[in-house]
Amino acid sequence: xxxxxxxxxxxxxxxxxxxxxxxxxxxxxxxxxxxxxxxxxxxxxxxxxxxxxxxxxxxxxxxxxxxxxxxxxxxxxxxxxxxxxxxxxxxxxxxxxxxxxxxxxxxxxxxxxxxxxxxxxxxxxxxxxxxxxxxxxxxxxxxxxxxxxxx
Length: 151
Description:
By secondary structure, this protein is mostly beta strands. The chain is 12% helix and 38% strand. It is built from three helices and nine strands. The strands form two sheets. Strands 1, 2, 3, 4 and 9 form a five-stranded antiparallel beta sheet that branches. The protein has a four-stranded antiparallel beta sheet with strand order 5-8-7-6. It catalyses: [protein]-peptidylproline (omega=180) = [protein]-peptidylproline (omega=0). InterPro entries: PPIase_dom_sf, PPIase_FKBP_dom, SlpA/SlyD-like_ins_sf. It comes from Chitinasiproducens palmae.
């Protein structure tokens, strides 16, 4: 047995892997299984911390499938994140001159800098209704991972 055989995924590991995030019905959200594998540095924010934690202790050749609750994924849906935005505010803080339709993901300039995004639900005469929850919030997910190599 060599040191490479003993290598396991840990904090700070460079990991070459295939991964897939999918809905419970099997619909892929993202997958590298039909492409080149990804190489990630654990702890660098390239993958959600919960997903990184699930890989801790795995070794090259391991292949696992994890079911994630909404809390383990993108959190539960928060009804307080469904908010009305004045159309004047929308025009001032989003892309100028764009026409938006329900279902569109709209990015805003945040007060004090930065950006945030919400899904447009409806447009009224003076305001628009947005859902600022992550689009995958409240959903169960499936995380599949195959470890190819660990550096």
